[in-house]
Amino acid sequence: MDNTKELNNIWTSRWNDRYSKEEFAYGEEPNNYLKEQLTKLTVGRILFPAEGEGRNAVYAAKLGWTVSAFDISNEGKLKALKLAEKNNVIIDYKVGELETLDFEREQFDAIALIYAHFPANIKSLYHKTFDRLLKNEGILIFEAFSKKHIDYVTANEKVGGPKDIESLFSIDEIKLDFPNYEIIELAEKEIELSEGIYHNGRGSVIRFIGRKKQLTTKTSV
Length: 221
Fold this sequence. Notes:
Shape: globular
Largest sheet: 7 strands, mixed
Strand content: 25-35%
Number of helices: 7
Strand order of the largest sheet: 3-2-1-4-5-7-6
Structural class: alpha/beta
Radius of gyration: 17 Å
Order of helices and strands: HHEHEHEEHEHHEE
């Protein structure tokens, strides 16, 4: 077995184990920042990458959004569909790595990256792929742990988040990964988290709201 496949299997097993428990790892309520931002937008089609047990996707569906989601964890999907049924909504939830899924170019009006901490070696590549899936003038909603968070999680493991700095984010990285966006908000903030079992305590996050710009092309005459 090659190293990449072995690492992928370890990663998948980790999340399947976390989501196989009866309790919802990050609770059943949506992320506060996502909740705040979605209420400002006109409903349409939205994608939730690394959606885990579905709390954010289900919330969006309750608001009337047409929701797609994906994760590498089948256990996460099972919990998400259970939560959707409990709330009388439907979500389209796929299991697999992004490059294996059949999302279409400019398919979505919004993409919500909520603690979507992909492995460091692919996170920028994934961000660029998400850009292609988002319509022109579409909105990207992002909240995830900043590089400063390494000090917070070292002091208090209950706040959660990656323990390798390469998997954490900086403002400069977001600017590099999403260069063709109107920045509505881009900030590093200290916040208090209370989300289920694994997000509890003070942490440092990057928050980003961006609108994808229409790229103009010059035509010869």
